[in-house]
Amino acid sequence: MYLIVTRSFPPEVGGMQSLMWGLTRELSKSFMIKVFADYIESHKIFDEQASFSIERVGGPKLLRKYRKAYLIDEFVKDSKVNGIIADHWKSLEHLKTNKKKYCLIHGKEINHAKGSGINKRLLNVLNNVKKIIANSEYTKNLAIDIGVKKEKIIVINPGIDPIKKLDQKSLDKVESLLAVKSPRLITVSRFDKRKNHEKVVMALRNLKQIYPDIIYICIGYGDEEENVKKLVKELDLEAQVIFFKDISDDLKNALIAKSNIFVMPSIVHKSSVEGFGIAYTEAAQYNIPSIGGKDGGASDAIDHEKTGLICDGNNLDEIYSSINSMLENKKYLEYGKNAKDFVAKFYWPNIVEEYKKILN
Fold it and tell me: What is the residue-averaged pLDDT of the chain?
């Protein structure tokens, strides 16, 4: 039996939640699995439908981590547990058991100055686990730079599920909405400084001179939403940028499928960094190539000059020229076809085999 210890799990929605759900679901096909997850409202219906046991731990956040650690330590004493797989170093910090531990790392949660208090805490956890699973080469190198033992780290990219069949009603809706708009750029992400919506909007001002009917579709919400909208207004780009949030998956997928380029040239903002970028691989399934930033793990998800482009997200000229070069001669069609072929390696049945090699 393996325990999955996580702070992020469905029915809560998000990238980490999807990752931990996919991993748990796939591992449960080969091993007996028990999950220890944080309590969330409306978990009962979800948990009852799972094919493995899920124990929810509630209470105030400060006390919850100690309570969860105690419950896990007690469970391990009485059960045949082969190992513990955690979503985050903090999920392992208070455990006393000496069972084999495996920890996923993603980027920003380990991006703290060497020698700082939090750096010492995370090194104390990570350098005492059996294996560390980094989501990209970038995250692996970041971990080594901050003092994690190189020999403990292996790179396994996050898995994805095959896309659902596109909904015809949603496709028709998108076509009528964007009928005269072309070319089409899209970003699906939180409005966060590191996602770099602002620079894409700035590049759009020049692209509009060449492509007067260009449209930039932004799907998401977040702290930077109002700032991005304000910039769009200041640059007189309200006819070129369209915002969506709280939309159905069907509509979101139709908007991606009907776009030409997925654009997210991420940067490092403070300690926040794009460890991998599942959004690039999801777009690739719809034959949509991506433009990603060189700072972060986008290079694992985008094969530069084959399935998209990697550029310097801090350099406005590079963002502009990357978009323009993909639009010229409709280069995005070739990249998009390559992207769809490339993305097959990220499907969960392939990714979980990498985990099984470590566990066995």
Answer: 96
Q: For residues 329 and 324, give the distance between their C-alpha atoms in angstroms, rounded to a whole number.
A: 10
Helix, strand, coil share of the chain (percent; to 5): 45, 20, 35
Residues in the chain: 360
Q: Look at residues 143, 101, 150, 151 and name the one whose alpha carbon lies nearest to residue 122.
A: 143
| Cis preceding-peptide flag for 183 (omega within 30 of 0) | yes
- What is the per-residue burial (b if ≥16 Cβ within 10 Å, else e) of 228-249? bbebbeeeebeebbbeeeeeee
Query: Of 296, 276, 32, 30, which Cα lies nearest the Cα of 157?
Result: 276
Contact 140, 155 (CB under 8 A): yes
SS3 110: helix
Can you give the pTM of this predicted structure? 0.92
Provide the pLDDT for residue 285. Answer: 97
Burial 317-355 (b: 16+ CB within 10 A, else e): ebbbebbeebbeeebbeebbebbbebbeebbbeebbeeb
pLDDT of residue 271: 84
CB 228 within 8 A of CB 191: yes
Bond preceding residue 10 cis, omega within 30 of 0 = no
Q: CA-CA distance, 201 to 187, in Å (whole number)?
A: 11
Q: What is the largest CA-CA distance in the chain?
A: 69
Instruction: Please give the structure tokens belonging to residue 177.
Output: 């909405």
Which of 103, 120, 104, 110 has the alpha carbon at shortest distance from 142?
110
Measure the CA–CA gap between 296 and 31, rounded to whole angstroms. 33
For residues 51-79, give the mean pLDDT: 94
pLDDT in tens, 104-162: 999 999 999 999 999 999 999 999 999 999 999 999 999 999 999 999 999 999 999 99
